[in-house]
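Hello Y.,

Per our agreement to keep a running log of every chain we model this quarter, I'm adding this entry. I've kept the format consistent with earlier entries: sequence first, then predicted structure.
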Amino acid sequence: MAEKRMLIVPAELVKRIDENRGDMSQAEFIDFLIDSQLKEESKEPKNYITEERFHSLEQDIKKLLRSFLDFFVSYGLELGKQSPQSEFEEIASKLQGLEKELDSNSDSNKGKATIKWK
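Predicted structure for the entry above:
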């Protein structure tokens, strides 16, 4: 037979144990709670992401969006009507401004993802 010890706990805690233990004894209920708590801690959280991984994802998405934008602009310029040089320079300057803005925002807004619509 297992050795038994006495545990002194506040009366309010004993009341909470008795209200929630159902058909289990107090010892079985406490053992069950301890086991279930330890099992939860041993599992890796699957629904959470670390701040570093989120920041990495944010940077990768920005790079992907830049590459899509570069592709579609160059594709449109090659296949579309012949655009004047000034229009091309205007688009290029807007892209460079957007890239600088994204780079500056990535340092100041760590951990935040923002979308700016115009």
